[in-house]
Amino acid sequence: MRWQIRPQAFVPVALLLALGFVAAGCSRAVPRSHPDIGGAREFKAFPLYWLGERFEKWNLTAIEGIDRPAQFVTLIYGTCTPHGGEQPSCTPPLEIQVSPLCWHLEAVARAPIWKHRRIRGAPVGTIHSAPVLFTSGAKVKVYRGEGSDPGLPLRALHVLRSLNRVAPLIAPAAPIPAPAAGVLDGTRPCTR
Q: Lower Cβ count inside 10 Å, N or C end of the chain?
């Protein structure tokens, strides 16, 4: 017995499969994971700072970088819907990137604005149009995205607090310990 294959029977099935793949890949808002706050609290590589589980109108939606050897950890507040052509993308309303103080410090501290700008006692520089707060153990860079206003990054830096138990620990509204004198301008080595 010989089977007769009818190509027209495969067209509806192929169409349904293609639609399913497209819908699955493009319809969800990014990010939509459950942040691993417990894992972040146990993170020991460097100090992590956050804004709590909610900041202004955005919930903490993701924490990236704690599950692997990372040079930085990113905390994402809010969601966005990917848009655009072949590779849709979007920028969440608020991203906080925390990294060890000494990692790429020369590049980040190159613009001397940090000499004249402080938040809660810690110097604040700028790189890639984002403010960067320098603590004695970490750099905290804040990016704003879709649905946010230009003042959001500085408001976020004003309310930073510790997420894990790695020094320096920062309480809400408490002073933030700055790097040792000479570290940011390169006259003293960064040892952390």
A: N
Return all residues near 184 (Cβ < 8 A) that are at least 6 apart. Answer: 105, 109, 114, 123, 125, 134
CA distance 140 to 65: 14
User: Residue 83 forms beta bridges with which residues?
Assistant: 89
Length, in residues, of the chain? 192
Mean pLDDT of 93-100: 98
Residue 148 placed within a domain: yes
pLDDT at 33: 56
From residue 21, alpha-carbon distances to 2, 13, 15, 25, 30 in Å are: 33, 13, 10, 6, 17
- 183 occurs within a structural domain: no
The answer to whether residue 93 sits within a structural domain is: yes
- The residues, any chain, with a CB within 8 Å of residue 155's CB and separated by 6 or more, are 56
